[in-house]
Amino acid sequence: MEKSKFGVCPLFTFEKIISGKWMLPVLRCLEQNDGIRFGALLRCFPEITKATLTKQLRRLEEVGFVLREETEGYPRNVAYRLTDVGHEFLHVFNKVEAWCEIYLADKAERKAHAAALAE
Q: Which partner from 26, 67, 75, 103 sits 20 to 30 angstroms from 97, CA to CA?
């Protein structure tokens, strides 16, 4: 991440946090599966590699959205859960998603209206 603007410019910070093909799907899966283990999380996305999932989880942990909990013992048990900041982000993102659905429906309606006028 470019350190000069990250954490200083709100929009740059937002874009860097959510960038990446798997960032939002991983957050959604964590939202629905509190305390999910790595293997179970990996099964949520058959197309993702272990390395990519690990990278995404580390990034989410770095920005404070995800907590990695490791228990002692053998075999080692690692679970992931959203932090309060992660839950707060998803609450805001749900509002953005709702706006996008309204926008797309309105766009489709405008396109249909324009097509009807063109006939």
A: 67
- Contacts of 37-45 with C-beta under 8 Å, sequence gap 24+, read 37/77, 37/78, 37/79, 37/80, 38/78, 38/80, 41/80
Is the pLDDT at 71 greater than 80? The verdict is yes
Tokens of 9: 């410019």
The two three-digit tokens of residue 119, written as one number: 């006939």
Q: What integer pLDDT is reported at residue 112 of this predicted model?
A: 81
Q: Model's pTM, two decimal places?
A: 0.76
What does DSSP say about strands 66-71 and 36-37: parallel, antiparallel, or unpaired?
unpaired
Average pLDDT of span 93-113: 88
Sign of the dihedral defined by the CA atoms of residues 43, 45, 50, 54, in that order: negative
d(CA 50, CA 38): 9
What letter would DSSP give residue 28?
H
Q: Which two tokens stand for residue 70?
A: 């490791």
What are the tokens at 36? 């999910």
Answer for the pair 27, 86: CB distance below 8 angstroms, yes or no: yes
Which amino acid makes up residue 97? Answer: E
List, in sequence order, every residue forming a beta bridge with 77; answer none if it has no partner: 71
